[in-house]
Amino acid sequence: MEINIFNNYGEVDFDFQEIIIDIETLFTNEMQIIKSLSCILVNLENIHNINKQYRNKDMPTDVISFPDDDDEYLGDIFICIDKVHEQANEYGHGVNREFAFLLCHGILHLLGYDHLNPDEEKIMFSKQNELLNKTKYKR
Fold it and tell me: The whole model's pTM is what?
């Protein structure tokens, strides 16, 4: 897997590039994913606008995924760095873990996983935990 990074946020105070490399390696080795995707880092205002425009939800969110039907390209993931900090603080873990969690979550959405009902949620969150437990970003 290859993750193309677009930093539309500005200065980020943690090593997101290292986390992205670790997650690339994880999905390549554990799920044999060889496609590429883009990860776009944004602020609260940007993610709010994207959420409102594409999901009709007038509020900011932490991560949004847009799958692509291309044979070699999975799609785009937007991650809100402001939400990374907020949620890391809220859940009592570091920003590295929160960013890795959101990136993993976004990739699973691109791969067709979802959490719209309890059965889907159980499958997706189980896969998320299984993958992250193989990294240094586990709980």
Answer: 0.96
